[in-house]
Amino acid sequence: MDAHPTGNQWDWIYATRALDAVGWFEPDPSNSHELVAEAVALGGRSIIDVGGGASRLVDQFLELPLERIAVLDISEAGLAHARHRLGARADAVEWIVGDVVSVDDVGEFDIWHDRAAFHFLLEEADRRRYVRLAERTVRIGGRAIIATFADDGPERCSGMPVRRYEPADLAAECGPGFRLIDSRRYVHHTPAGVAQSFQYSTLERVARATGHDAGS
Ligand SMILES: C[S@@+](CC[C@H](N)C(=O)[O-])C[C@H]1O[C@@H](n2cnc3c(N)ncnc32)[C@H](O)[C@@H]1O
User: Which of 16, 20, 62, 117 is the most buried (most CB within 10 A)?
Assistant: First the structure.
């Protein structure tokens, strides 16, 4: 797929492609829902979905006993699809248009969820910025649920190169502020029928002894 020459490529994708035809589309994001519901059952009351785009996961958040729900995405067009789908219920959600590697502050949340956004960060400096935001955002004892293509997953997503992870690699990227507590693999079938290996990692936000981000 050609990149949009000037604008936000994600806005261009969301504006030009059918939502239920993009490779990452899930009619029912059941893995994410299950892992989020587990964190809610343990007391989590606030959640931010990072790179949530037009995902139907936010519809499921609205059925959980959550007091604060936010969806952050670089694409206003992606978020607009979700808002439109939810109608009046969209008012119960904070919609944050921003690049996860440059957003300064989104407040504090109990749960951070990301399916298929982190794996687009190819530059180490961007991954560090992502992790620093996650550290600032997730309260100690809270959880980050991060799904990426697994090591045997595709090398590209929507034409863009990605990094693939095993849970241990992802935990290493997240540094000492997070502790891997659970992981699962899942084979996603795209609307075109292509199998894609994902890994879902659940990490607990822990107090860290050393400065992982010192100097950057
Ligand atoms: C593959 S889609 C996954 C969407 C959604 N999480 C899902 O599972 O359906 C990746 C999403 O991440 C968003 N995204 C990509 N890079 C981003 C960035 N640097 N900051 C915030 N969002 C980003 C895209 O706009 C898109 O909505």
Answer: 117
Count of domains for the chain: 1
pTM for the model stands at 0.94
Return the closest-CA partner of residue 112 out of 92, 136, 77, 86: 136
Structure tokens at 157: 């997503």
The ligand 1 atom at the shortest distance from the C-alpha of residue 29 is 8
pLDDT tens-digit series, residues 72-105: 999 999 999 999 999 999 999 999 999 999 999 9
CATH of the domain at 139: 3.40.50.150
Q: Over the chain, what is the mean pLDDT?
A: 94
Is residue 74, in this structure, part of any structural domain at all? yes
Two tokens at 10? 């994600």
Domain that holds residue 37: 22-205
